[in-house]
Amino acid sequence: MTSCVLAIDLGKTGCRGSLRVGGKPTRCAEVAGAPGLANAGGVAAAEQAILAVVDRIAPATAFALSVGAAGAAAAPDAAALLAGRLAEHSGADAVAVASDAVTAHAGALGGSSGVVLAAGTGAVATAVDDRGRFTRVDGWGPLLGDEGSGGWIGLEGLRAALRSHDGRGPRTALVDAVGERYGIAVHELPNLLGRQDNPASTAARFAPAVAAAATTDETAAAIMTAAGHALGRSVLAAVEQSGLRPPVPCAITGGLVNLGAALLDPLDRAIDGVVDRRAPLGRPIDGAALLATDTATALEGLVIRVF
After folding, report:
1. Does residue 56 carry a pLDDT above 90?
2. Beta-sheet pairing, 4-10 with 14-21
3. What interhelical angle do 76-89 and 42-57 show, nearest 10?
4. Is the pLDDT of residue 1 over 70?
5. Residue 241: pLDDT over 60
């Protein structure tokens, strides 16, 4: 296989690409993400985002394209369709498509056993045991799951702001934070979210405001604590279902790590004693690059390949 790899991390917020030659990054690009392969029109939106990155940084020589895509685990037929379209239109001589949860695991633990929590706009916990069996918890999207994710935190914060505005809930600084973050009044939120193709991404933009307010605002603090506990439950469920014996190697990846102690303290308390928390070896995009060339990892059965 060619040593030239274009790795893609396709999330609901952004689509990031990294061109690597001989394992070393040379060029990168980022465009808007896609709502997820399980959504109506998800394959077309994903293809559009990926090809926009390919157009910016693809080399003139042969290359392999490897994609970690949100929603691929929930919609494997859509993932296979995406792989076929990319093989036809991207110019790559080999295409690999996997769930972004799979590439996050590969990047964080380098293909070894353990649990990885990928927490960004969405949230999913994955486990791989010593025999390569894969367990997935949550990642069900903003309507049915993704509990504790950026989209979930953002929506809970926006709901709390509306409750405060109506007098149905306690006064909270999140009301003013809505204007600071979106430049609109609270009562305009339904119109804002209703116009979005990707409302979870729009709501996730409010998660940092909720985390910032948590130091002084009880309502925001309660949301962040609930988010940490929800993410902790996903990690614990992944450990239990996988049969891995504690302490289980565990890495946390994704943009929510940047929210800091308001989220991570309750999360760490929830999983203390069950996991051996360690820094991730790499990012999801590094996992996509690894899976492009390494067909012997424990995750191989979860990768769709088109040559």
Report:
1. yes
2. antiparallel
3. 40
4. no
5. yes
pLDDT tens digit sequence for 168-220: 999 999 999 999 999 999 999 999 999 887 899 899 999 999 999 999 999 99
User: What tens digit of pLDDT does each residue of 17-28 get?
Assistant: 999 998 899 999
Q: Residue range 133-137: average pLDDT?
A: 90
Is residue 131 within 8 Å of residue 150, measured between CB atoms?
no
Between CA 149 and CA 200 the distance in angstroms is 10
The domain 111-277 is placed in CATH, from the list 3.30.420.40, 3.40.50.11810, 2.60.40.200, 1.10.3720.10, at 3.30.420.40
Q: CATH number of 4-103+282-306: 3.30.160.340, 3.40.640.10, 3.30.420.40, 1.10.1660.10?
A: 3.30.420.40
Q: 238 by DSSP, 3-state: which?
A: helix
Distance between CA 118 and CA 120 in Å, rounded?
A: 7
The whole-number average pLDDT for the span 248-256 is 93
174-182 and 150-166 are packed helices; what angle lies between their axes, rounded to 10 degrees?
120
Question: Whole-angstrom Cα distance, residue 202 to residue 179?
Answer: 14
Q: Do domains 4-103+282-306 and 111-277 have the same CATH topology?
A: yes
**pLDDT score for 115:** 96
Residue among 150, 113, 132, 148 at smallest CA distance from 271 = 148
First to last CA, the chain: 10
pLDDT of 131: 80
User: What residue ranges do the domains of the chain occupy?
Assistant: 4-103+282-306, 111-277
Strand order in the sheet with 14-21: 24-32, 14-21, 4-10, 64-69, 94-99, 304-306
**Looking at residues 8-12, what average pLDDT do you find?**
91
CA pair distance 111, 122, nearest whole angstrom: 22
Backbone conformation region of residue 263, classed left if phi is above 0, alpha if psi is from -120 to 50, else beta: alpha
